[in-house]
Amino acid sequence: MDPVRNPYAPGAGQRPPELAGRAKQLDAFDVVLERISRGRPERSVMLTGLRGVGKTVLLNQLRSAARARDWGTGKLEARPDQELRRPLASALHMAVRQIAVAHRNLEMVDDFLGILKAFALRATVDKGMRERWQPGIDVPAVTGRADSGDIEIDLVELLMEAAQVARDIGVGIAIFIDEMQDLGPADISAICGACHELSQEAAPLIVVGAGLPHLPAVLTASKSYSERLFSYHRIDRLDRDSADLALIAPAEREEVKFTSEALDSLYLKADGYPYFVQAYGKATWDLAAQSPITVEDVELAAPAAEEELAVGFFGSRYERATPAEREYMRAMAELSGDDGPVATAAIAKELGRRPASLSPARDGLIKKGLIYSAERGTIGFTVPHFGRYLRSVA
Q: What GO molecular functions are on record for this protein (predicted)?
């Protein structure tokens, strides 16, 4: 098969040629946008799931849906070593600039940008950096709103001001936050507080977050009402029909078909995980000689797909771990079967160590996003089939 025509795209956050199995989430978000457009109160949205299930792809698709309605949108990716102020200011600046062109009262927009600049300049930096860094907002900072230095107070004031700009223009604003579980406790608390205020006021501004499976627990630990504050959507593996569609639809546009046995084999190998579906689909296409693609083509291509996953998807993460952290993960892999959560006490027993002595390794892996606290006393891999990979390299 011509590799230039290969339609499959196993890339980080890269939209697959056929976004299969996500109609429920897309339809639900359309309802949110329409309700807000009609002045009705609505909750912000949180997407959760393991790595490789397409959270970032879906987040980008939801952003496209908002932009199609002429909403202002901005996006940021949270990082454990970064405060929220700067990236949020940049995302909100982008969103307001998108909608400002439709508004004739530029003085009102400039007033908001002055508040936004004051908010951004309260970022915690050393004195020398404060003198050099500017947020790229070409208006004077306006003091007295969103500049107290308390992120919880400032974020409520800032987003309520942004929502008023959107309301005056007659549109909405949506801020998209990827890897949301990596925000610090103060920033998480501030977002929860701000979203609470926005919801109560039926303000035309929402936050759409994406994160690992423990994101709901992170939010609830910050504000007890968070379980009712957001609309949660768990993003999981594709069912059989959706996984088949993700393979068949792009191929048919290139006038290529799969045998039913080939699809059986591909689903078994990819296990419905969207990233794996794309990886196996791409490798199989490149190796197949002609249409229809057969089960023999799949079996011959599988080692190439698995090698690519071992290096780019699994190996790159494994290399980030320290020796102690790798030992911890290997014990998890032996106890968890493939991916399932395992009790931390069982890991300590497997390694013949006291649980407290393993806390640094566990905490390090959580900070690196390799494992997550599934529930109290248990740990799971953030990457599907990571346990299988670790057993293969042990």
A: electron transfer activity; heme binding; metal ion binding
